[in-house]
Design goal:
- Keywords: Membrane, Transmembrane, Transmembrane helix.
- This is DoxX family membrane protein.
- InterPro entries: DoxX (IPR032808).
- The protein has one domain.
- 73% of the residues lie in helices and 0% in strands.
- Helix 2 crosses helix 8 and helix 5 packs across helix 6.
Amino acid sequence: MTRVIEFFVRLYVAVFSLLEQVTRGWFLGAFARFAFAGILLMYFWNSALTKIGSGPLGFLHPSTGAFAQILPQMMEAVSYDQAQIPFFPYHVLVIAGTWAEFVLPAMVVLGLFTRFASLGMIVFIAVMSYVDITGLGADATAIGALFDGNPSAMISDQRLLWCFLLTVLVLNGPGKISLDWVLARLYARRARYY
């Protein structure tokens, strides 16, 4: 019986050691970015599209909806007249939030400054969750609770998984299939000549 157990232990170690060696340095980062692209890229971009104003310079003049989503209580206090909201810091905050929803997801997917972009997305998700709870009045069902046996809550459950996915990228980087890897190689090659 001991030999059978030893055989399966050696087989287990051999198979998963080989799998780890074959995927080291490229798979985890590429798969995390693929999962982010497939699940969250269009979610954030569609949300950002609701925030840009009209015309070619709409990205500099966020829509009323942008202010209502990012500063809901303030907008309610001024009867949804964004002209009554001071430019600094609030208009700047709304413009930055809108741009972040376009730029950070694109950087994550492309693997460009991935660790920074992923950390930025984690902060963005935390702020988004805070606004949903305190400003938009998310109910208990939407907020959910950890360890409650119901994994469908939008805020506590889903967003924790989003943050885990992004934390993998913050800690491990995007891997070899990324613009970060290409830029690092170009920089290293250029540094050798100086």
